[in-house]
Amino acid sequence: MDIVLATRNAKKIEEIRRMMSGIRVNILSLADFDCPDVQEDADTFEGNAIKKAVAISKCTGHAAVSDDSGLEVDALGGLPGIYSARYAGDGADDASNVRKLLAAMQNVPNESRGARFVCCIALALTDGSIYTFEGEVKGSIALNPEGSSGFGYDPVFYPAGHGITFARMDAGQKDSMSHRRAALEKLKAHLKKIT
Prior knowledge:
Blueprint: E1 2-5, H1 10-19, E2 26-29, H2 45-60, E3 63-73, H3 94-104, E4 114-124, E5 130-141, E6 157-159, H4 171-175, H5 179-194
Parallel strand pairs: 1-2, 1-3
Antiparallel strand pairs: 3-4, 4-5, 5-6
């Protein structure tokens, strides 16, 4: 089965391909197709993931997998949430999003810095079937960025039970506990049943 990853984020593609190894699917990149960008304007991670997967499946004629993921911070009422990638404004980069987050939390004490990464993956098949799979990892927000691995909010996220941020972990260590891994394991189990 051919599956198109509905993202142009090279680091996310690399991460998903790494975690999807061992199943009988051919993972294609969106770079191989001429599809328009899909506006993420739903009000949930699931809604955005479904919208992207369906649009890319229709555009390419293949099954498509999309994920929408982000960081929910307790002290900020769940923000940045679905706005994680554009928290500092449209076209924002990772560094500016992290700066805005830390500025918003500058007076939040350590015991109130709880957060979680959330991931919803949608699989859209060419017959119109849609399946969703969710994962999360709980943790807390650092006072300052630490580490240079990963992407997004990894430099300021301490997963629960660990004294280092995701950005200070090697890929294997992060993959073993990430929100995306939890959702992808559910996707993999489903694909093994249908391929």
